[in-house]
Specification:
Number of domains: 2
Number of strands: 6
Radius of gyration: 21 Å
Strand content: 15-25%
Oligomer: single chain
Strand order of the largest sheet: 3-4-2-1-6-5
C-alpha cells in the first residue's frame, strides 16, 4: 500500500472510530435515560412524576434522533472504499489544497495524523460541494478565499 492510500485508510479509520464513539455515547445516554425513567416510576407521585416522565420522554426522543443521524453517518462511511483512487474529487477523496486538506466523508471535523491536520467534511457541506468534481491544478473560490487543488487522492 502506498503512502497516500495508507493515509486515506488512516483517515477512514478515524472517521469510523468517530462514529463508533458517538454511537457508544448515545447508547450510554439511552441506557441512563431508561434507568432514570425506571427510578422515576418507582418514586413520587402527582405533578412531579408527570414532569419527570415528560422530561424522560423528551430525552429519549433526542437520543433516538441522534442515533438515527449517527446510523446515517455509518451508512455514508459504508459507501466509501478507502483503497479506491480517483482523479476527480468525490465521496472518499482526500483533496489537498494550498490552504487545507479535506477528506470528503462525514462531518467529523479536524483529524490529526502525523502532526498534520485534515478536515473530514460531509459531501453535502458547502466546501465539499465546491470541491466535488474538481481535479488537481484546478481552483475554486470559497468564502472569499482562493483554493488551489494540488492533489486529489
Amino acid at each position: 500500500m502506498d503512502k497516500n492510500q495508507q493515509l486515506k485508510s488512516q483517515l477512514y479509520t478515524k472517521c469510523v472510530d468517530y462514529v463508533n464513539q458517538r454511537m457508544s455515547h448515545i447508547q450510554a445516554a439511552i441506557d441512563a435515560a431508561s434507568e432514570s425513567g425506571n427510578d422515576e416510576t418507582k418514586s413520587s407521585a402527582g405533578d412531579k412524576h408527570e414532569t419527570g416522565r415528560a422530561m424522560m420522554q423528551l430525552e429519549q426522543e433526542k437520543n433516538a434522533k441522534q442515533l438515527i443521524e449517527t446510523l446515517e453517518l455509518k451508512k455514508l462511511l459504508d459507501r466509501i472504499n478507502p483503497n479506491q483512487h480517483s482523479q476527480t474529487a468525490a465521496l472518499g477523496s482526500l483533496v489537498i489544497t494550498n490552504k487545507e486538506k479535506f477528506y470528503i466523508s462525514i462531518s467529523a471535523g479536524k483529524l490529526m495524523i502525523d502532526s498534520e491536520i485534515y478536515f473530514a467534511v460531509s459531501p453535502t457541506s458547502p466546501i465539499a460541494l465546491k470541491l466535488i468534481g474538481l481535479t488537481a491544478d484546478q481552483e475554486m473560490n470559497f468564502n472569499g478565499s482562493l483554493y488551489a487543488i494540488q492533489q486529489v487522492i
